[in-house]
Amino acid sequence: SAAYEVVSLVWMELAMFGVAAVVYLAFMGIPLMGPKKKNISGMEQKPQKSAAQGIYRQWQQAKKGNGELPGGLYAVVTCMRELGKSSSQIELELRTASGGEASE
Fold it and tell me: I need a surface site. Which of 48, 55, 88, 99 has the fewest CB within 10 A?
């Protein structure tokens, strides 16, 4: 009867694993075998970079009081991250723009 308990426990674990696998495949899809193709030419990166640079230019104008910022601060922070600025650089930029002290 102890052997029966062990077998029933293992069977339940296998059944739960199967259900988890089915739920995973239902939500995530079947993973494809093989490596994903990488963008070697960088064609997709350039439009994002130029859009980020455009938003950053608008931010520079808005800091001077010469323009509007259509995307808000979220767009500014996102574009600065895309341009490779660190969190401390972004914080410094936002503090100086808001008139706060630029402490490092």
Answer: 99
Residue 63 · residue 97 · CB < 8 Å: yes
pLDDT digits (tens, 9 = 90+) for 30-70: 776 666 666 555 555 556 677 888 888 888 888 887 777 77
Contact by Cβ (8 Å): 92, 102 = yes
pLDDT for 20: 96
Structure tokens given for 36: 């994903």
Whether the CB-CB separation of 69 and 59 falls below 8 Å is answered with yes
69: left (phi over 0), alpha (psi -120 to 50) or beta: beta
CA distance 21 to 95: 48
Cβ-contact 76, 57 below 8 angstroms:
no
CB-based contacts of 55, cutoff 8 Å, min separation 6 = 71, 75, 76, 79
Structure confidence at residue 67 (pLDDT): 74
Q: Which two tokens stand for residue 74?
A: 């979220």
